[in-house]
Structures are given as structure tokens and as C-alpha cells.
Design brief:
- By secondary structure, the protein is mainly α.
- The protein is built from eight helices and four strands.
- Helix 3 crosses helix 6 and helix 4 packs across helix 5.
- The radius of gyration is 19 Å and the shape is globular.
- The two termini are 34 Å apart.
- The structure holds iron/sulfur cluster.
- Iron/sulfur cluster binds next to loops.
Length: 201
């Protein structure tokens, strides 16, 4: 890898470089869409992401330390965002009786209303994906899952709740299998964020 993927000659000669640049463009699209939602709600992008995360995940994951790992941010940054969400009455906190420094977060009615609407912030990205064939979607999903898995292994992205990092995942002769659900998983069924995921210890 002698030249940057953003070097035009490299990019136009290597498919790998074009994929990297394409992913960078897509990440820019997410950033733009999140900022748009941010302006509409008068919340920062991370505050919106926290609301969406809380609305779809179990209570034990809705803690400052977990959120910090999830979003690759410091606990202090997450705590600042939570302070704002509390002051706007969008989340409520419940202190852990065993450890008074620790608390879980849930959405208030007002928070649920905002999260429900904000959760569609990426629908402009979903629409063109809908137009792909099932085969194109499967190839795309597999490529992305492998990429995320490798980035997770190299420590660039932290928490992953995907099949490939789950203790229940048992591939057999090239067939994906979930020992918990007792079922084969076809390539398009491999999960990226599974509520039953258990970290391999
Ligand atoms: S429990 Fe979920 S993440 Fe784990 S292998 Fe089964 S489907 Fe995949």
C-alpha cells in the first residue's frame, strides 16, 4: 500500500481504493443526515444517537460506560450529552441500588416521541438499497460484515453484537449456525446487532 486510496491514480486503478472512497462518501451522507436531524430537534448528533440507541436496546446496555464504548467516546463526553438530555426531560435515570455511582437510562414520553421520528434519519440511504436485487444486497451485507468484523478485531471499532463475535455462533462446513436459536443462518440472516448476542469469553 504505497499510495493513499484518495490518490486519484491509485483510486482509478484499484477496486479496493474505490471501495474505501465510496465508504467515506457514505459516511459523509450519514453525517449530513444526522446534522439535518440535529437542526430540526435542537440536539447534537450524539444526543440523537443516544436517544435512538436507548429506544432499541435493553436497559443493561443503557449505561454511560456502555454508551461510551458503543460510540467510541469518553465517558465524560457521553455524560455531558446525558446531562443535556436530562435537562430537556428526554431521558430519565434510575440509580443502581448496588452501586449508587452507576445508573441506567430510559426514555421519557417526550424522548420516545423524538427518538421514534429521529430513528428514520437514514431512510434516504435505505431507499436506494431497496432497489438492489436480493443477490446484490447479500453480497453487500457480507462484505460489510466482514469489514466490520476485521475493524473490530483490530480495535478500531469497539462493541459489536454481530454473529461472528458471538459465543452462540458455530459455523459448520461453511454453513452459519446459531446454537442459541438452534437454526441455520442463511447469509442474508447474519445479524449485525442481535439482542441475544453474547461475547466470546
Ligand atoms: S445469538 Fe444472535 S448474534 Fe449470536 S449467533 Fe445467534 S443470531 Fe447470531
Amino acid at each position: 500500500m504505497n499510495k493513499s486510496s484518495f490518490h486519484l491514480t491509485e483510486q482509478n486503478q484499484k477496486i479496493e481504493s474505490r471501495i474505501v472512497v465510496a465508504l467515506e462518501r457514505i459516511s459523509e451522507a450519514f453525517r449530513v443526515l444526522l446534522w439535518k436531524k440535529s437542526k430540526e430537534t435542537s440536539l447534537s448528533p450524539i444526543q440523537i444517537q443516544i436517544l435512538i440507541f436507548i429506544s432499541f436496546h435493553s436497559l443493561e446496555k443503557c449505561k454511560v460506560s456502555y454508551l461510551a464504548d458503543e460510540f467510541n467516546m469518553t465517558k465524560a463526553t457521553i455524560s455531558d450529552s446525558i446531562r443535556v438530555l436530562l435537562s430537556k426531560d428526554l431521558v430519565a435515570k434510575e440509580t443502581d441500588p448496588q452501586d449508587t455511582r452507576s445508573y441506567t437510562l430510559s426514555l421519557t414520553q417526550k424522548g420516545k416521541t423524538i427518538a421514534k421520528e429521529a430513528a428514520f434519519f437514514a431512510s434516504s440511504i435505505e431507499r436506494p438499497i431497496d432497489k438492489l436485487t436480493q443477490e446484490q444486497k447479500t453480497v453487500m451485507l457480507n462484505g460489510l460484515l466482514q469489514l466490520i468484523y476485521d475493524l473490530n478485531k483490530s480495535g478500531i471499532i469497539t462493541i459489536q453484537r454481530m454473529c461472528f463475535t458471538c459465543s452462540h455462533y458455530k459455523p459448520k462446513n461453511g454453513i452459519h449456525y446459531c446454537n442459541l436459536l438452534k437454526t441455520k443462518l442463511a447469509a442474508p440472516d447474519i445479524r449485525l446487532d442481535c439482542p441475544e448476542h453474547e461475547i466470546i469469553t
